[in-house]
């Protein structure tokens, strides 16, 4: 394979990577919408497509790594590095969207855990502490207070 053919192959691979990155970005946005609406079936239905896109991007990275090891860097093989920079920017945007979705998932999980702890604690206590309008415990006497002395 000549250097020009290799460069064209890399250029085509990077163009395909840009398309995959755009698809992944769109999917991550849909995922965020589904998570925000707590539409878990929709969220789960997107995971297969997401895995497919990630697998394609992993193959692209392996191909670029192999080309780099062969001495052909994308920036050297293309006269215009704009396509490579675009791919890097798209992947950076996908990383940021993934992190945002991860934070949303973690926040929702923590909220659920907190609600479960509250429910478990209220089930375990047989009595509920109630305060009167003066802020004192209503109906409980825990020994003699200074008012009873």
SSE sequence, one letter per element: HHHHH
Strand runs, count: 0
Beta-strand level of the residues, as a percent range? under 5%
Tell me the Rg in angstroms. Answer: 29 Å
Q: Provide the low-confidence segments as ranges.
A: 1-5
CATH architecture: Up-down Bundle
Can you tell me the CATH topology?
Methane Monooxygenase Hydroxylase, Chain G, domain 1
Concise synopsis of the structure shown:
This protein has 149 residues and is mostly helical. It has five helices and no strands.
Task: Describe the structure using short key phrases.
elongated; 149 residues; Methane Monooxygenase Hydroxylase, Chain G, domain 1; single chain; disordered N terminus; 74% helix; mainly alpha
Structural account:
The chain is an all-alpha fold and 149 residues long. The protein has one domain: Methane Monooxygenase Hydroxylase, Chain G, domain 1 (Up-down Bundle). The chain has five helices and no strands. The chain has helices spanning 3-36, 40-45, 47-69, 74-77, 82-124. Helix 1 (3-36) runs antiparallel to helix 3 (47-69). The radius of gyration is 29 Å and the shape is elongated.
Summarize the SSE layout with pairings.
Blueprint: H1 3-36, H2 40-45, H3 47-69, H4 74-77, H5 82-124
Helix pairs in contact: 1-3, 1-5
